[in-house]
Sequence to fold (750 residues):
Amino acid sequence: MAVEQCLAVIDCDVHQNFNNIQELLPWVDPAFRDYLVHGGYGGYSLPNYPWLHPSGFMRGDAVPDGGGVPGSDYGLLREQLLDAFDVEYAILTGEEILSISAVPHPPLAAALATAYNRWLTEEWLPRDPRLRGSLVVAPQDAERAAAEIRAFGGHNGIVQVIVSCGAPTGYGDRRYHPIYDAAAELGLPLAMHVGAEGLGTNAPPTATGYPAYYIEWHTLLPTTAMSHLVSLVCQGVFERFPGLRVAVVEAGVTWLPGLLWRLDSNWRSLRSEAPWLKELPSETIRRHVRFTTQPLEQPGNVESLWRVLEAVDGLDEMLMFATDYPHWDFDEPSQVSRRLPAGWRDAVMSENARAFYRLPARAVEPEPVAAEAAR
Amino acid sequence: MAVEQCLAVIDCDVHQNFNNIQELLPWVDPAFRDYLVHGGYGGYSLPNYPWLHPSGFMRGDAVPDGGGVPGSDYGLLREQLLDAFDVEYAILTGEEILSISAVPHPPLAAALATAYNRWLTEEWLPRDPRLRGSLVVAPQDAERAAAEIRAFGGHNGIVQVIVSCGAPTGYGDRRYHPIYDAAAELGLPLAMHVGAEGLGTNAPPTATGYPAYYIEWHTLLPTTAMSHLVSLVCQGVFERFPGLRVAVVEAGVTWLPGLLWRLDSNWRSLRSEAPWLKELPSETIRRHVRFTTQPLEQPGNVESLWRVLEAVDGLDEMLMFATDYPHWDFDEPSQVSRRLPAGWRDAVMSENARAFYRLPARAVEPEPVAAEAAR
Fold:
C-alpha cells in the first residue's frame, strides 16, 4: 500500500447516482412532474440498455447496506473510494442521467438535465470538499443546453460539462456549436463519457449496426469516442472555439496511436477538403483533448502497454487517472500506477487533471456561488 | 531499388475493375439484363459514395492511355504493378463490385456477383499466371452465396471469397453461416475488404452515424473492420467453423493491440455471457485471421510504428503485404518493407500470404478447372 499512500490521486470518473429518477422530483420543472410520476408503465424511466452485463454493471460490494443502487450512498462512496485511496478530488460524472441523450423529447431531456444539475449542486457537492461535479446537458437542443451551461457553469464545484458518447451524429456537427460556445465562454471543458450508445434516438452503437452480445458492445465502445474525436477535429470545432477543451472519459487509450497517425496522414493528403484545418490533427488533439485511463488496457506483458503508450508524443501529458467507481471494471489507483511508465505517474495520477480542471493544490471547499444566478 | 529486387512480393490487394457495370452484360443472368441496360436513369449503376475524395479515389497516372477507369486495363496494371515491382502473385479484389453488399434486391445483387465471377475467371485470370482472384458474393442471401462458392470455388485461380466491410450487421450474425460453411468446405478464406460503408442498405459508417467529410469517413474505416472482427469472434463463428480463415483487407493494423487487449480482458470478465468461447479471443484471431498492410500507418518516427506492431505477439505471422493498386493511397513495396521491423520482412512481404493462400513457391499458371462444374 506504500505506493498508494505516496501518490496524490485525482479520480476523474466517479459515478454517483440516484436510486431512481423519481428522486429528482423535487427539482424538476412542474410541467414535467406528471411524466416522472405517471409516465410510461407507472413512472418515467430513461431508455435502458438491451446489452446487459451478465452479472451486473456494478461492483457487488458497492450496494449500500440498506439496499439501493451503487453510487447512491455518499457514506459508502467516501468509505470505498475517497478515504480508502486518499483521493484528493473526485470528479462526479453521474450515471443513468447520461442516457438523456437518447430521449426523443428535447424539452423533457432538458428538464431532466436541469433537475439533475440542481440535485447535484444542492445534494452532492456540499457534502465533501473533495467532490467536484459535471454539468449534464441534453444535446438534443443545443441552445437550451448552452443556457443551462450559463446558468450553472459559474458554480465553483462544477468543473466540466458532460454528454454521453451515444449520439445521433458526431459531435463536430454544427447543431452542437452553441454548447461549445457556452463551455468555452465559461472556461469549462466538455467531457464525452461512454454511455447510451445505440439507445433510443442515438445511432447504432457500432459501425456495423447492432451487436448481439454485451461483450461486443462493450469491446467496441471506444469506436464511438474515436468517431466523435475525428468529427470534432475535422469539422473544425477547435478552430472555431479555440478555448474549448475536451475530456474523453472511459473509452480506453491504446487506440490513440493508430488513430492519430491515420488522421495525420489523411490530413496531409486530403486537406483540400477541409481547408479550415491549419495544423496536424494530432497537434490539435494534444492541445485540446485529455483522456481518462479507465479501463486501462491489460496486456499479458506490461511492457507492451508502455510501448503503445509511448508511441504517442506527449501522451504523458494527456492521460488523467480514473477509477470508474462503482462500475464492475473499477481500476484501483495502485493497479494503474504500476502499469504506467515510471516517469508518467505524478502527471497521470493527479497533475494533468489538476491543470485541466484548474483545481487548487490541496482540496478545499469550493466557494459558494449562486448556482442559477443567470437564469 | 536493390531492396525491392531482393524481395519476393505477394500483393494481397489489387483492384482490377470494369469501366462500367454494363461490361458484365455478356455474363449476367438474362432475367437481369433489362436492369443493367435500362435500370434507373438509363442503365444500372451500383450505389455510389456520397463521401468523395476531393481529388479522386484513384491514382491519376493509372488512367489507361485511351481513357477509362484505373484498374480496367490489364496492360497498364502489368506495367505499373506486376512488372514494375516484380510481383510474384497479385490477388485481385475487384472494386465497384464490392458495393453489391449495399443493394436492396438480393437476387439482383447475387446475379451481379455471378456475372462478375464469370468475367473474372474468363477474362482476367487466364491473362497472366501471376493473377489470382477473389470470388465475390452477395451476403444478402447467404444460401445463394454458399451456392456461388460451391460453383466457382474449385477454380484454381480463385484463392478466397470476398465481401465488403460495409454491412447491415456484424458478420458474426447467424444469417451469414452458410457462407462460412461453404468457404470452410472449399478451404477458401473469407476476405472482408473495406467498401460500401454507409451505402444503400448498409449500417451508417461510424458508431455515431453519418460523418460530413471524406476525411472522417476514411479515417474511421477501420472501425467497421474492428466491429466485424469482434462480431465473428464473440458470436462463435470460429468455434462453429474451425476451418474458416479470414483476411481483413485495407483496414490498417495499428488498432489491433488495443482491440485484442480489450477483447481478452472482456472475455476474462464476461465469458459467462458467451460460454462457447473456449480460449482468449487473441488466440483465436492469431490462428484464424490475417491482416493486409495497406494503408500501413506512417508516424513521424518509424520506431513508434515498430513499438505498436511488436506489442502484439505473433503479428509478424499475421500481416500480409498489399499495395492497394491503383488507389490514391497506394503503398510501394519498398516503402512498406522499410517501415517493418527488420526480421519481419520476408514473412510480411510474401511468405505469410503464400502460406495463407496456399500459393506455389513460384508463380505458375493455375491448372484449368471447369469453373461452374457444380452449378
